[in-house]
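> forwarded from #structure-qc
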């Protein structure tokens, strides 16, 4: 991670003023940056600003944008995962963000470990996404969406898969050459219910194997993210 990279949700333009407060201001203070120094600010909207630190005040820093760099949006890769304990979801969000996942759909499965997520937990998830965004150097902030059940999720316009431990399931990597948007669904630790499995089949989800072994839900999500990231990287080199 560039040591001097910060986050602001603003849309950037040259000569614009950016104000860093709270966590981002604390980060600047920890890095001991001073007035007149340059730093980088990412907005999670495919933009990076090179900025000059105009002033450092008691509770905020004022920056002036010198240059704006843009990147094209990455391929749409979605990890859909059942509610897990907060610590496990935090691990998935951090690592899968580093692996270029663009959206996280978190749903309440019939056999989920937990039935709800608290407001402070969701706020922490959002901070983890921002931290991972800065750490790994990407320009886009993944979207975080929550659903009360698999049936209440919107239709996904792309290829849809779910983690399947049955012998008939084919390896996930066999399906990744296609450049269409992709969604991989990871069920809870105790597995998806019969009702949910029926829904997958009726909704054109394809069962795929992520490993020769049975993986924990958080491991499966990270493994799927890694395979999707590798496929996207390979595709960009093959062009």
């Amino acid at each position: 991670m560039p040591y001097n990279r910060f986050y602001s949700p603003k849309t950037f333009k040259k000569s614009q003023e950016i104000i860093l407060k709270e966590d981002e201001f604390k980060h600047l203070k920890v890095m001991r940056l001073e007035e007149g120094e340059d730093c980088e600010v990412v907005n999670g909207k495919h933009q990076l600003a090179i900025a000059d630190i105009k002033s450092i005040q008691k509770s905020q820093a004022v920056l002036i944008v010198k240059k704006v760099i843009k990147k094209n949006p990455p391929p749409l890769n979605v990890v859909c995962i059942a509610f897990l304990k907060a610590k496990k979801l935090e691990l998935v969000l951090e690592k899968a963000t580093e692996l270029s996942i663009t959206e996280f759909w978190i749903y309440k499965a019939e056999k989920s470990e937990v039935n709800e997520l608290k407001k402070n937990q969701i706020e922490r998830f959002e901070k983890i996404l921002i931290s991972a965004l800065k750490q790994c150097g990407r320009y886009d902030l993944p979207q975080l969406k929550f659903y009360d059940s698999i049936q209440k999720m919107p239709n996904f316009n792309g290829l849809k898969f779910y983690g399947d431990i049955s012998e008939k399931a084919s390896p996930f990597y066999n399906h990744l050459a296609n450049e269409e948007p992709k969604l991989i669904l990871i069920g809870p630790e105790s597995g998806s219910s019969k009702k949910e499995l029926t829904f997958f089949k009726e909704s054109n989800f394809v069962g795929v194997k992520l490993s020769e072994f049975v993986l924990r839900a958080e491991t499966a999500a990270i493994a799927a993210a890694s395979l999707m990231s590798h496929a996207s990287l390979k595709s960009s080199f093959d062009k």
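QC bot note: The chain has two domains: 5-70, 77-238. The CA atoms of residues 46 and 139 lie 5 Å apart.
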